[in-house]
Structures are given as structure tokens and as C-alpha cells.
Write a structure and sequence with these properties.
By secondary structure, the chain is mainly α. Helix content is 78%, strand content 0%.
């Protein structure tokens, strides 16, 4: 317990400064990743709209993947 009038330890303030810096670094790293991901997603959707794709085959492929994960979850094997 600190006595009244005693100075506060400076380690408390250093920790805060480091946390604020870490938050800024995270923001600087995560924000561009979100923007790049969004731009790639918009480009992929745009390309898919223009492409001539056999959606039956794609749906069958995705269905088998989902079925495999579901069976693994239910049976515990795989």
C-alpha cells in the first residue's frame, strides 16, 4: 500500500505506454490486412460473376468436403 504523498511507481506508466504502442502496431498491421482481404474478395466475386462455371460440380465437391468433416465429427474417426 502506498502512503499518502508518496510518488507513484513509474513502472505503471511505462506499461501503459507499451500497451498503447502495441495497440497501434496491431492496428497498423491488421487494418491493411482487412483492406487487402476485402479487395481480393471483391475481385474474386467479380471474376466469378463473369466466369462460366459448372456450379453443379462445385457444389458436389463442397458437399463431399462438408460430409467428410461432419462424419469425422460424428464418428470421431478420420
Amino acid at each position: 500500500m502506498l502512503k499518502s504523498g508518496a510518488p507513484l511507481p513509474t513502472s505503471l506508466f511505462r506499461c501503459n505506454r507499451i500497451e498503447r504502442g502495441a495497440r497501434m502496431i496491431r492496428l497498423v498491421i491488421i487494418l491493411p490486412l482487412i483492406v487487402v482481404t476485402w479487395l481480393l474478395l471483391v475481385k474474386v466475386v467479380s471474376d466469378l460473376k463473369k466466369a462460366n462455371i459448372d456450379w453443379t460440380g462445385v457444389t458436389t465437391f463442397v458437399g463431399f468436403i462438408v460430409l467428410a468433416f461432419w462424419l469425422r465429427h460424428v464418428t470421431g474417426m478420420g
